[in-house]
Amino acid sequence: MPSTADRIDLGPPRDTGAISSFGLALLVHAALIAALTWGVTWKRSDRSVAFEAYLLSDTPQESAPKLVEATPPPPPPPPEPAQKVQEVKPPEPNVDMALEQEKKRKLQAKQAQQGRSEKELKLKQEQAKRKAAEEAKRLEAKKQQQQNQANAAALEAQRKKNIARAMGLADASGAENAKGTAQKSAGPSASYAGMVRARVKPNIVFTEDIAGNPSAEVEVRTALDGTIMSQRLVKTSGNKAWDDAVVKAIIRTEKMPRDTDGRVPTQMILEFRPKD
Questions:
Q1: What is d(CA 110, CA 103) in angstroms, rounded to the nearest whole number?
Q2: How many CB atoms are closer than 10 A to CB 70?
Q3: 190, containing H or E segment
Q4: What is the pLDDT of residues 141-192, one digit of tens each?
Q5: Got the DSSP string for 137-152?
Q6: Does residue 172 contact residue 181 with C-beta atoms inside 8 Å?
Q7: What's the CA gap between 157 and 151, in Å, rounded?
Q8: Are the beta carbons of 246 and 204 closer than 8 angstroms?
């Protein structure tokens, strides 16, 4: 029995437009490729060729120099290959050197301690010496003060003794069997004080005005012939100028007169007043 496929009139109609559709699709794709190619070519073309313009000006102007394109800098050199870091091993500790340094450090510390001790000892010794010197100076000053006081007391006693002796001479008769307060051989005569005053007074140089009539007393020591050996102010008048004038006058006198018996007292205290 024959099939239905063998009969043309009974099968589906044949597609006669497939070939024309395929050709149309190829044409559209070719047109699209051409349009893309032309677009890329148009964008890369030089615009200065496509457009030209002329500018006119009443004032003549010089044309600008031609633009010179700058030369691009040379590319940087390629980086050098990194050097291989050599691995350095730490040195091994030197035990002997460390011990030597520690020994040296201890020795220096010991020497520094000894130096400080010596300085402290020296300072204490100097302080002790200064203290001893100050104490000795204080004792010497005290001793000198006591000696001065003793000398002053002795001089005062001698002065009073001389005054008492002089007062006794005023009442003495001078006879061998006299029984006064002093004998003739015990002191100068009654007129000896006037003799001394007459010898010393011309040598006094004093021109200042002085209030009152103060007294200056001078201790004089002489040799047996009357030569003045020393003089010392034992009682001030309160006026230094008058005291100095009296002392200088005794120095100028150089030699005391002899008494009526031919002798010269080896120690005497002389009293002078500026208005006597």
A1: 11
A2: 6
A3: none
A4: 988 888 888 888 888 888 877 776 655 544 444 444 444 444 444 568 888 8
A5: HHHHHHHHHHHHHHHH
A6: yes
A7: 10
A8: yes
Q: Which residues are CB-contacts of 149 (< 8 A; sequence separation ≥ 6)?
A: none
Q: Which two tokens stand for residue 7?
A: 């009969």
Residues 6+ apart with CB under 8 A from 22: none
**DSSP H or E segment with residue 128:** helix 95-171
Q: Do 239 and 214 touch, CB atoms closer than 8 A?
A: yes
| CB distance 244 to 208 below 8 Å | no
Q: Cβ(234)–Cβ(159) under 8 Å? A: yes
Q: Are strands 216-222 and 267-272 parallel, antiparallel or unpaired?
A: antiparallel
For the full predicted model, state whether its pTM sits above 0.85: no
**CB contact at 8 A, 220 and 230:** yes
Q: Which of 189, 220, 222, 216 is nearest to 204 (CA)?
A: 216
In total, the chain counts a number of residues equal to: 276
- Residue-wise pLDDT tens digits, 20-72: 777 778 888 788 887 777 765 655 554 544 445 544 545 555 555 665 566 66
Longest dimension (CA), the chain: 229
Contacts of 174 (CB under 8 A, 6+ apart): 184
C-alpha 247/C-alpha 232 separation (Å) is 7
Kindly report the number of other CB atoms within 10 A of residue 216's CB atom.
23
Which two three-digit tokens encode residue 232?
């010392």
Kind and range of the H or E element at 170? helix 95-171
Encoding tokens for residue 263?
Answer: 């002798």
Burial class (CB within 10 angstroms; exposed 0-12, middle 13-18, buried 19+) of 124: exposed
